[in-house]
């Protein structure tokens, strides 16, 4: 009798193209259209073939403004979404660059990216304090003074970056 080996595989996720013949016709999703149908029977509906077509036609964007902390520090961010991966939290914490027809690069304002860069810098600084060479330097009076002076310069640069004088 032959030996039969059965191997069980899990479900493999994959993306398949949505058939356009059964896809619904989509309206532009703007704040004034949420929860409403077409304004009139004569309104031209937008037909979308796939998700890339939807991003190209509707050009979704978000201008975010918020405040945090006791001082009500203001945060602003401007996002223009070109694909689904732009919604990923990692990508929202990065600066977006845009090229115009002449090839000039402009960066959208993203205070969240600046904040993440500062937090990453502070974590790297914290990790450096654990190194034996830094501990030895802290025990030396002259090197301790140099470290304190360097930290003072870092504090000045951070207050200039934030645009406020802090403590």
Short account of what is shown:
By secondary structure, the protein is of the alpha+beta class.
Listing every helix as H and every strand as E from the N terminus to the C terminus, the arrangement reads HEEHEEHHH
Number of strands: 4
Q: Strand sequence of the main sheet, in spatial order?
A: 1-2
Rg over C-alpha atoms, rounded to the nearest angstrom: 27 Å
The helix tally amounts to 5
How far is it from the N-terminal to the C-terminal residue, by CA?
Answer: 83 Å
Structural class category: alpha+beta
* Beta fraction: 5-15%
For the report, how would you describe the main beta sheet?
A: 2 strands, antiparallel
Outline the low-pLDDT stretches.
none
User: Quick check: average pLDDT?
Assistant: 80
Your description of this structure?
With 167 residues, the chain is α+β, with helices and mostly antiparallel strands. Among the domains are: 50-113, no CATH class; 114-162, no CATH class. Helices cover 37% and strands 13% of the residues. It has five helices and four strands, in the order H-E-E-H-E-E-H-H-H. The protein has helices spanning 51-58, 89-92, 111-129, 132-139, 141-162; strands at 61-68, 73-80, 97-99, 105-107. Strand 1 (61-68) and strand 2 form a beta hairpin. The longest helix is centred in the last third of the chain and has 22 residues, at 141-162.
SSE diagram, text form:
Blueprint lengths: L50 H8 L2 E8 L4 E8 L8 H4 L4 E3 L5 E3 L3 H19 L2 H8 L1 H22 L5
Antiparallel strand pairs: 1-2, 3-4
């Amino acid at each position: 009798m032959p030996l039969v080996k059965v191997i069980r595989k899990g479900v493999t996720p994959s993306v398949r193209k949505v058939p356009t013949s059964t896809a619904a016709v989509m309206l532009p999703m703007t704040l004034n259209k949420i929860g409403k149908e077409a304004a009139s029977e004569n309104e031209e509906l937008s037909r979308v073939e796939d998700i890339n077509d939807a991003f190209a036609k509707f050009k979704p964007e978000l201008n975010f403004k918020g405040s945090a902390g006791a001082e009500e520090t203001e945060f602003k961010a401007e996002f223009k979404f070109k694909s689904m991966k732009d919604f990923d939290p990692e990508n929202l914490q990065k600066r977006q660059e845009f090229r115009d027809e002449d090839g000039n690069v402009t960066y959208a304002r993203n205070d969240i990216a600046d904040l993440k860069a500062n937090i990453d810098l502070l974590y790297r600084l914290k990790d450096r304090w654990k190194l034996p060479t830094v501990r030895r330097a802290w025990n030396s009076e002259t090197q301790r003074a140099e470290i304190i002076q360097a930290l003072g310069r870092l504090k000045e640069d951070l207050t200039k970056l934030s645009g406020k004088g802090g403590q």
